């Protein structure tokens, strides 16, 4: 009986991988990005895998979750969720990073549920011989489209812990167009997002204009991560009107976005002001945000993402996906769930092109015309490469980073940098 199979062991391995000197509203990425790889081993010797945040508070709650899943059948998703909700709470005083909703400790329970759910679904798929997408109701598309995610960047990290990446500097409009061209040549993306909130809005708008000229007809997005004031966002809107498919989180707060919505025809998108069901209720009542960027890592998993998609359909909201620095296990989980969502109205975000290392067998996931093929093999469709896991874990042990801190990193370049938000 498949229900006799139970989880007998949980392995949590923090890893660190190289990440570029990417600029954002909070500062700049550190040379090492952290993740945690979670493995659930069963009584019949199978291993289900998952990838999530690797900062210290997250590692602590994952440790707490260990006992909650041992003894459960991989099919007991509801019981797992009940147990996690009953015992995993917010961590008082935890380090939080405003730009990355996944670092908010109030989301500890959904983050843990998501981590365990992906590994349990991987196991379910292996047991019944079906890809995860089939357990989610089956695919409505064979491949999931992603967008080219551009960043302003320096050529190399100030600390120089390894040789600079191959992308070079990305500060001027010409360099941003060049970055887009390279990313599209390599991956075939068919839409472009620029991470903004870094330079004066006039420069970022000029970059969008240059992208529009270089790639006529290509859907474009700009995401200043709430680093523009409401006034700046209103003033910029007419200039962006003809350029963008959506205007992502230009100014802070649901109220700010609601006021901005009165001044622009552009659909407003967010992964910052709606990150919980409570926000969803308030946001729906205000009617300001038109596109929701979901993220299974903090919304509570793949099934919760499907629920969110249904809510978006009901409230007539567009849907896409948010991303932070991640590797292939997360990319495949995103791909399975996105393939099951009929109303995925926009290509998903992914930081994946910025990562060079991998933790799965076969190395880097490939993109075809900007899309990832939905696996047809059982479970997630990818397996852990144990040698690589050991290498990335050793990097974690030696790199010294334990919590993401883009502000502190930026102060190495500009000691006076305050990270004040909104800055423009
Ligand atoms: O990694 O620099 C970054 C991004 O700014 C990230 O922290 C955001 O969470 O990509 C994200 C976004 O779309 O807001
Ligand atoms: Mg965003």
TrEMBL record:
Belongs to the mandelate racemase/muconate lactonizing enzyme family. GlucD subfamily. GO terms for molecular function: glucarate dehydratase activity; metal ion binding. Coiled coil: none annotated. The active site is at 195 (proton acceptor), 322 (proton acceptor). Pfam families: MR_MLE_C (PF13378), MR_MLE_N (PF02746). It comes from the Bacteria. Its EC number is 4.2.1.40. This is glucarate dehydratase. Its cofactor is Mg(2+). Residues 173-267 form the Mandelate racemase/muconate lactonizing enzyme C-terminal domain. It comes from Paraburkholderia saeva. Pathway: Carbohydrate acid metabolism; D-glucarate degradation; 2,5-dioxopentanoate from D-glucarate: step 1/2. It is an enzyme of class 4 (lyase). InterPro entries: DgoD-like (IPR034593), Enolase-like_C_sf (IPR036849), Enolase-like_N (IPR029017), Enolase_C-like (IPR029065), GlucD-like (IPR034598), Mandelate_racemase_C (IPR013342), Mandelate_racemase_N_dom (IPR013341). It catalyses: D-glucarate = 5-dehydro-4-deoxy-D-glucarate + H2O. Keywords: Lyase, Magnesium, Metal-binding.
């Amino acid at each position: 009986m498949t229900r006799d199979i139970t989880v007998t062991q949980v392995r949590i391995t923090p890893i660190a991988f190289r990440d570029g000197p990417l600029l954002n509203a909070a500062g700049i990425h550190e040379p090492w990005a952290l993740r945690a790889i979670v493995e659930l081993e069963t009584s019949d010797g199978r291993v289900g895998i998952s990838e999530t945040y690797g900062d210290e508070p997250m590692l602590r709650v994952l440790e707490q979750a260990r006992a909650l899943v041992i003894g459960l059948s991989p099919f007991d998703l509801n019981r797992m969720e009940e147990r996690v909700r009953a015992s995993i709470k917010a961590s008082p005083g935890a380090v939080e990073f405003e730009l990355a909703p996944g670092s908010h400790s109030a989301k500890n329970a959904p983050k843990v549920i998501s981590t365990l759910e992906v590994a349990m679904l991987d196991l379910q798929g292996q047991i019944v011989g079906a890809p995860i997408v089939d357990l989610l109701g089956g695919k409505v598309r064979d491949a999931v489209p992603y967008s080219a995610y551009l960043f302003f960047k320096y050529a190399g990290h100030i600390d120089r812990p390894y040789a600079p990446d191959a992308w070079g500097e990305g500060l001027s409009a010409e360099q941003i167009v060049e970055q887009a061209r390279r990313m599209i040549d390599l991956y075939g993306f068919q839409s472009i997002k620029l991470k903004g909130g870094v330079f004066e809005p006039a420069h970022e708008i000029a970059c969008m204009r240059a992208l529009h000229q270089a790639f006529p007809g290509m859907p474009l997005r700009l995401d200043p991560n709430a680093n523009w004031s409401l006034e700046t966002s209103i003033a910029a809107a007419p200039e962006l009107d003809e350029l963008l498919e959506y205007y992502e989180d230009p100014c802070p707060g649901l109220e700010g976005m609601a006021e901005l919505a009165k001044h622009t025809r552009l659909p407003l998108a967010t992964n910052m002001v709606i990150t919980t069901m409570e926000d969803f209720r308030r946001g729906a009542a205000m009617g300001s945000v038109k596109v929701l960027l979901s993220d299974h890592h903090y919304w509570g998993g793949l099934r919760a993402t499907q629920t969110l998609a249904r809510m978006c359909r009901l409230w007539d909201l567009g849907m896409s996906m948010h991303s932070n620095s991640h590797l292939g296990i997360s990319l495949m989980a995103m791909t399975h769930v996105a393939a099951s969502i009929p109303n995925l109205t926009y290509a998903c975000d992914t930081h994946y092109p910025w990562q060079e290392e991998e933790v799965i067998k076969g190395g880097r996931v490939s993109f075809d015309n900007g899309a990832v093929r939905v696996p047809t093999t059982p479970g997630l469709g990818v397996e852990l490469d144990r040698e690589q896991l050991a290498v990335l874990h050793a990097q974690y042990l030696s790199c010294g980073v334990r919590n993401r801190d883009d502000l502190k990193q930026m102060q190495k370049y500009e000691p006076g940098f305050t990270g004040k938000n909104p800055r423009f």
